[in-house]
Amino acid sequence: MAHEILTVAQMYSVDRAAMQAGIPGSLLMERAGMAVAREAIILCGGRPRPVVILCGPGNNGGDGFVAARHLSAAGWRVRVGLLGDRVALRGDAAWAAECWTGCVDVASPDLLSGAGLVIDAMFGAGLNRPLEGQALALVQAMAQPGLPVLAVDVPSGIHGDNGVVLGAAPVADVTVSFFRPKPAHYLYPARGHVGRLVIADIGIPDTVLASIGPTIQTNDPTLWRAQFPRPAVTGHKYQRGHALILGGTVMTGAARLSARAALRLGAGLVTLACEPAAQLVYSLSMPSLIVQPITDAGGFSELLADPRRNAVLLGPGAGTGALLREAVLASLRAGKAGVLDADFFSSFAGALSTLRQAGLNDRWVLTPHEGEFARLFGPLTGSRLDRARHAAAESGAVVLLKGPDTVIAHPDGRVRVNHNAPPDLAIAGSGDVLSGLILALLAQGMDPFDAASTGAWLHGAAGQYCGRGLIAEDLPEAVPAVLKQNNL
Ligand SMILES: NC(=O)C1=CN([C@@H]2O[C@H](COP(=O)(O)OP(=O)(O)OC[C@H]3O[C@@H](n4cnc5c(N)ncnc54)[C@H](OP(=O)(O)O)[C@@H]3O)[C@@H](O)[C@H]2O)[C@@H](O)CC1
Ligand SMILES: [K+]
User: Fold this and answer.
1) Is the CB of 11 within 6 Å of ligand 1?
2) Nearest CA to 406 among 471, 453, 347, 357?
3) Residuewise pLDDT in 10s, the chain (488 residues)
């Protein structure tokens, strides 16, 4: 199964490489339009409906003309509306329009009256400015209740690379794209317009990817299943890593959730260090948790000195005092692997250079949500994907930017987009569980980029398993079932 995501520029390169390999553009367009027609038939349960196909002035419109021909041949009543002038069509789009022998109307909202389906073939990869005028009016007209929309490549108005809606875009029931998805198919707000995504094979060989070098992937177990830690038959707990968590004194729930998640996902031992005032709360929370009272950062450093404590989590519920700050710097200097989350971002607002000097590197995973991200990295521009990638390069660490479309970026430029998280996960304590999951995997020696990807995926899968009504406490408890379900 393919997991590459291609940017618009990469997709144009693929197109050129395919043509250089002897596949004519018109053949790619023919297969693209056929795939659109096939999905229209599937969307309508095989029963013909009056369909309106809105074609734009470029090759996205060309795909629409091909689909028109195939649906008409299948006995569908097809009306084609063209944005722009037919004689201005060029290249493959002009060829596709020539092959369509039916009427071509001027695209206008009136065309949609009586339609049982609209195919949006106005703009795809070539969208270069916000929709206005007639195109905008058409998108607004597509928003009729009960009128299904099938989008070709991307819903018109969506920029393929960044997931931004330029002016307006229809909310499609199905989007049919070709060869590989684009970032916009997975990034919000665009993803909310895509509906069911179909990636059609249009005969482009996978070998063209060798010269493209894709760096963006959808997050999926096949990427990290082989690296997923499994206990050895003759193993003992120290071979499964020893995680260390700094627990706060007031907000103790966060570190307790992280610790429970880390234990559930197989860390051999989990030590929670806290000030004596909070010791009892943590000790009573889980018998399998080791609780170590410390009175200052020196006490934390003593715990770090044991080389068996190989992975550290700092931030959840830890407060923004000197203890967290010093524990972070000591852990970085000690060369541990770890996760930095929650209060870490307030404690080190704008202090990236201090962290780098202390030794922040790609053994560490930073797990900010948008607000926390801005605290450490400032107001970066660009898509979530661009910003996470930029932040990873700047920090030297793996950056997991949380959201419905969590993005995981490695400083070397690789990026994965997670897409299995249900909205039910947007609840208090959910992020603390995620950091605990990643911590467990780091403790067991998993590569940090894979650990972050695996943690995000398992978190999403646990959310799906629990379903509506879940609370953060449910997520660690769902881990055994999710592991079993997925043969992990
Ligand atoms: N890659 C592949 O493998 C394959 C790709 N295929 C298909 O090709 C599609 C890409 O085609 P494409 O490059 O011709 O661009 P497309 O999206 O039709 O738009 C360009 C036109 O729109 C115009 N325009 C732009 N924005 C506008 C706006 N806001 N408002 C108004 N006008 C605007 C722009 O005008 P201009 O900027 O020149 O004024 C230009 O005329 C791709 O999405 C897929 O469907 C398949 O056939 C099979 C294989
Ligand atoms: K489109």
Assistant:
1) yes
2) 453
3) 689 999 999 999 999 999 999 999 999 999 999 999 999 999 999 999 999 999 999 999 999 999 999 999 999 999 999 999 999 999 999 999 999 999 999 999 999 999 999 999 999 999 999 999 999 999 999 999 999 999 999 999 999 999 999 999 999 999 999 999 999 999 999 999 999 999 999 999 999 999 999 999 999 999 999 999 998 888 888 788 999 999 999 999 999 999 999 999 999 999 999 999 999 999 999 999 999 999 999 999 999 999 999 999 999 999 999 999 999 999 999 999 999 999 999 999 999 999 999 999 999 999 999 999 999 999 989 999 999 999 999 999 999 999 999 999 999 999 999 999 999 999 999 999 999 999 999 999 999 999 999 999 999 999 999 999 999 999 999 999 999 999 99
Distance 386 CA to ligand 1 centre (A): 23
Provide the residue ranges of all domains of the chain, joining segments of one domain with +.
4-214, 221-485
Pocket test for ligand 1, best of 27, 59, 129 (most atoms within 8 A of CB): 59
Task: Look at residue 288 and give its three-state secondary structure.
Answer: coil
The class level of CATH for 221-485 reads alpha beta
Residue 179 Cα: closest atom of ligand 1: 3
Q: Is the CB of 155 under 6 A from ligand 1?
A: no
CATH class of the domain whose range is 4-214: alpha beta
Neighbours of ion ligand 2 (CB under 5 A): 120, 124, 151-152, 156
CA distance 188 to 165: 9
